[in-house]
Automatic annotation (TrEMBL), chains A, B:
GO terms for biological process: carbohydrate metabolic process. GO terms for molecular function: hydrolase activity. The keyword Hydrolase applies. Residues 425-521 form the Non-reducing end beta-L-arabinofuranosidase-like GH127 middle domain. Pfam families: Beta-AFase-like_GH127_cat, Glyco_hydro127C, Glyco_hydro127M. InterPro entries: 6-hairpin_glycosidase_sf, Beta-AFase-like, Beta-AFase-like_GH127_C, Beta-AFase-like_GH127_cat, Beta-AFase-like_GH127_middle. The keyword Acetylation does not apply. It comes from the Bacteria. It comes from Devosia sediminis. Gene3D superfamilies: 1.50.10.20. This is Glycoside hydrolase family 127 protein. Keywords: Hydrolase.
Length: 637, 637
């Protein structure tokens, strides 16, 4: 299914899309609470003492991150992501106080920056002697990447160039330092991130050197001799001494175009593949796209939770064996699903394909947003699909990567809904929103969705060009939507879904054109490939893009005693007021009785059962009410 | 169900019972291989360098045992258990070379012992300054306990008193050091063991001071103010700093008679309860028995795997929540099930009750012996009930507690089969064996079982008194044995099972009296209490005392794709030549087809199924053939 398309789709900039409805509520939560909380907690963690050249260095505050074996040395990344979040939030809700706090941090970084452009508060303030000694473990370029993303967003949001200029100087420094020329380092970062950040920086500045450096980092990765082994030997370290003892951990075991299996640390993998997808689009590089298509199938057909969660193991924060998807111990880091959204959205750069957009939506609604409480104040790091009632969102973490990651995704969501090519707009996600678009072919229009999606499947789309204009509107028809209907200006249309799973409407658009899309949201009963041992004999319920679960708040304790009975009664849906009006699903079920079982732990009998109604709620909203059990994969009779 | 019986049953000494058949094979494996392997690997681990005062001290060889946070400081216990194993093995198979090696180690300990009787190679040779500074964490009395058990066994096996005398001097030292008198320490060990060892020492020496010291340790445990808190404060340590931050970890949270819940480290708990049961018997202490009955129900009705494995969590090597029994991550340490056998056998000290003997048998055949390969050369530490094919027996371990523990249990098995009171012999286990008995009432007889148990349920029992004598023979009728039959001298007997689950035959026994017991071994289908979420919707197959499992060697990969179909065909049994003639069970089943499922990881369909025959083998024999998956709790249609 190699794409040889030369069409290049790029996301709409965040400021071009106003979001309301379901995602508007999430954005409000981040604007009103999360954005400031991120800064508050970064300050409480003593990050600013490390950054601010005017106060004494705090030294190493957290000596060991247990899964990494190094001190906490990547706080710049948390500040970068927090500033990025604040930037996006300022579009939606101007907030002079928050803006001033961000400006103050940017001022510190500007003051801290070395004359040659180098900037990393850990290596400048805490351990100068470690600078550039360990690209594999020390997150040095990773931090630069997140700072660049923050700088790009802050520039776009506020028009202020200071942070962008600071990070351009750091990028210029890197352009000099890394490369294949004499005296340059042929290395790359152990935690990918700088690559996709440089693409963003190149796009906003138009500086091709940044794009080429991104390409260099991606192309060099995994080439022989392996840079990380050479680097370790050069610094008298055991080349197998850390990082889970594998090159797979950071995807440097093979040149990226030869990689066929998704391995290692999940977030690292997603950020790498995101950059590869960006570069495939920018350079029309089919060799990258082919590798990515293989990796995509590997991930989504063998290694992904139904929630779009990825990376089942805590030990490497990443991938294990094919079809190994434990539910109660699922790591499925919030950041990894955020990264999957990044990757999927970038796979759409070479044209609309629902194989990517469907999974982007699945990861967004189930793997990623679950990481944030509805009030925007607490966070999941890992996202199990089963809980005995002890798993809850926390207020902060020694490695606080997930909170700003989900927050920046939420606040930039507009750019994931739409993407544009020269003469086309693709609608990848359905969400109450208004996009203000100007295509390269000159068409200028607004596209407005009116919908209560994901609770309702009815979507009204208003296309209002300033003047009549020819372009295409491509609408995703999700793979799960059987019996979808589309009308144009009230006239039903035969649904001509193309090979990519989109309906492409190319026409002369006029002010007042109206589309009506109806995606049926009947609850669906899904089973896993029989090779997923942990889901054997169990089903998951989905409705539209949402995975559902049983929660103790509705069903009491002992969720594994509940057996769904399909067809034994009516399937009802109901709005839940204390979950933002989310739609619950009520299903007929049996419940095994523990009371009548007796004292024996094991016995030659079946448990008594009693008829009941099982209430399912959207998985991503669990643990927002009273604490209790949770279960996604359910028994059935 | 409090026992106020004043009957005292004690095990027959190991030399009084010759074992053959099934357990004879295991004993041969230990005599021929394990016993020498234990010494070889203790030597390779550098233990003797620590013990031998004539060579330089090796210093701390293993700086940290990760779950404990201390160096490896309990090697004396491994040597003690190894010598105990060797002692028992010498009954069965004299081995001058092995005996000479044990003698040489005993000579080292004799030479090492301080003039005041103190003996512990770690604190004498490596860290004298730590001596008696940390009873909670440092295993000092625990080591003495295992050395005492080894000394008792070696004396009984060889008649040589040297090791016994050495350990009596250490026990005398402890009698002086610990107690409620002026200048004495009112403490006890963080890892129970010394208590049950002192009971054994008292029984073999007749020295009541040892018995009373055991009682002191048990009675003091958990009294307020808590000794371990006081001890930590006295040595300027954080009283909550180690040992999983709980007093429950070592069962010192409450006085033992007030404990109602089985908590903490599983082996510690079992050794404590074993000592409590011994003391309940020796002192006819109903208050201890009552506490033990409560703890017994707590363990066996809420916290025990069907294998008799206990302690599901690796984090504390112990207990977690009621009904929390994960199968694939089950810790279920071999030592813990060995400890459960110890406890259960001692609960029989106040009279035959199958509630204890049935569980003793269950833990013996499924939780404990699984820890040893059939060739006696490799060992399981943890015993999951499900494996994807990566769990295998190892040759050694930084904490090599399990190998000698299962080895000493196997070689002393005769003493678990039978127990005697003044005028009675109880047959708790069925096994090819001959017991030579002299009761306190003067009756002198041999009791011989001829049986292929556990493969067959037919047991012939020959009772041959030297002269006609009156005494009782109590035969356990296992709770699972429906339709058991008994004949005396060819005459069928109405099976009058008493409240404890035994048939008690009190009569004038004559030479040539013959009993024929027939315990039906029909495969049984068991389910777990619905509160065990991990077993929901699944069944386990047992036959007699044996838990069965699916293994990859017979059924290929993907064991969770197999659904048993009760009643869809014949249940067959067959002997497996490459597993010592073990009986396999063949059951009709369906198998979900992964081949025809397609590429989707999740889909709205059920997998195709195909009829098949599932072969089940005894769980304790798994991983003795080619490596592969294993599964105890099976799906059913």
């Amino acid at each position: 299914m190699t794409s040889s398309s030369t069409r290049q789709f790029r996301p709409l900039p965040v400021p071009s899309v106003t979001v309301g409805g379901y995602w508007g509520d999430w954005q409000d939560a981040v604007c009103d609470h999360t954005a400031a909380i991120l800064l508050d907690r970064c300050v409480a963690a003593r990050m600013l003492e490390q950054v601010n050249p005017d106060v004494p260095s705090p030294g190493i505050v957290i000596p060991i991150i247990h899964w990494l074996g190094t001190p906490q040395m990547f706080w710049d990344s948390d500040l970068g992501k927090s500033i990025e979040t604040i930037a996006y939030s300022l579009y939606r809700k101007p907030n002079p106080e928050l803006e001033a706090r961000a400006d103050a941090i940017i001022d510190m970084y500007e003051k801290l920056q070395d004359a040659d452009g180098y900037l990393n508060s850990f290596f400048q303030r805490i351990k100068p002697e470690w600078k550039w000694t360990n690209l594999r473990d020390f997150h040095e370029l990773y931090c630069a990447g997140h700072m660049i993303e923050g700088a790009v967003a802050y520039y776009q949001a506020t028009g202020k160039r200071k942070f962008l200029d600071v990070m351009c100087r750091m990028a210029d420094y890197c352009v000099k330092k890394f490369g294949r020329g004499p005296g340059q380092v042929r290395g790359y970062c152990g935690h990918e991130e700088i690559e996709l950040a440089l693409v963003r920086l190149a796009r906003v500045t138009g500086n091709q050197a940044y794009m080429d450096l991104a390409k260099f980092f991606v192309d060099e990765r995994g080439q022989a001799p392996n840079f990380f082994i050479e680097e370790a030997i050069a610094h008298n370290r055991d080349p197998k001494g850390v990082q889970k003892n594998t090159l797979e951990y950071n995807q440097s075991h093979l040149p990226v175009r030869e990689q066929t299996k998704v391995v290692g640390h999940a977030v690292r993998a997603m950020y790498l593949y995101s950059a590869m997808a960006d570069l495939a689009t920018e350079y029309n590089d089919d060799s990258l796209t082919e590798a990515l298509e293989t990796l995509w199938a590997d991930l989504t057909q063998k290694q992904m939770y139904i929630t779009g969660g990825i990376g089942p193991a805590e030990s490497n924060e990443g991938f294990t064996d094919y079809y190994d998807l434990p539910n109660d111990t699922a790591y499925a880091e919030t950041c990894a699903s955020v990264g999957l959204v990044f990757w999927a959205s970038r796979m759409l750069g070479r044209g609309p394909k629902r194989v990517y957009a469907d999974t982007m939506e699945q990861a967004l609604y189930n793997g990623a947003i679950t990481g944030l409480s509805t009030d925007g104040k607490t966070f999941f790091y890992d996202n199990p699909l089963e809980s005995t009632g002890k798993h809850h969102r926390w207020t902060w973490h020694a490695c606080p990567c997930c909170p700003p990651n989900i927050a920046r995704l939420v606040t930039s969501l507009g750019s994931y809904i739409y993407a544009v090519a020269d003469d086309e707009i693709a609608v990848h996600l359905y969400a109450q929103s208004e996009a203000r678009v100007e295509l390269a072919n000159g068409a200028k229009f607004t596209l407005r969705q009116d919908t209560d999606y994901p609770w309702s499947g009815k979507i009204g789309i208003a296309v209002d060009p300033e003047t009549t204009a020819r372009f295409a509107v491509s609408l995703r028809i999700p793979g799960w939507a059987r019996g979808a209907k589309l009308a144009v200006n009230g006239q039903p249309l035969d649904l001509a879904v193309d090979a990519g799973g989109y309906v492409r409407l190319e026409r002369e658009w006029q002010k007042g054109d109206r589309l009506a899309l109806d995606l049926p949201l009947e609850p669906r009963v899904l089973r896993a490939n029989p090779q997923v041992r942990q889901d054997a004999g169990r089903v998951a319920i989905m409705r539209g893009p949402l995975v559902y679960c049983l929660e103790g708040a509705d069903n009491g304790a002992g969720l594994n005693s509940i057996l769904l009975q399909h067809g034994a009664g009516r399937v009802e849906t109901a709005a839940i007021p204390d979950l933002r009006g989310a739609i619950a699903i009520d299903l007929p079920a049996l419940r095994e009785q523990a009371n009548s079982w007796g004292a024996d732990l094991y016995a030659e009998k079946a448990a008594d059962t009693e008829a009941t109604t099982a209430r399912l709620v959207p998985y991503h909203l669990w643990d927002n009410r009273e604490p209790g059990e949770m279960l996604v994969w359910l028994r059935e009779r």
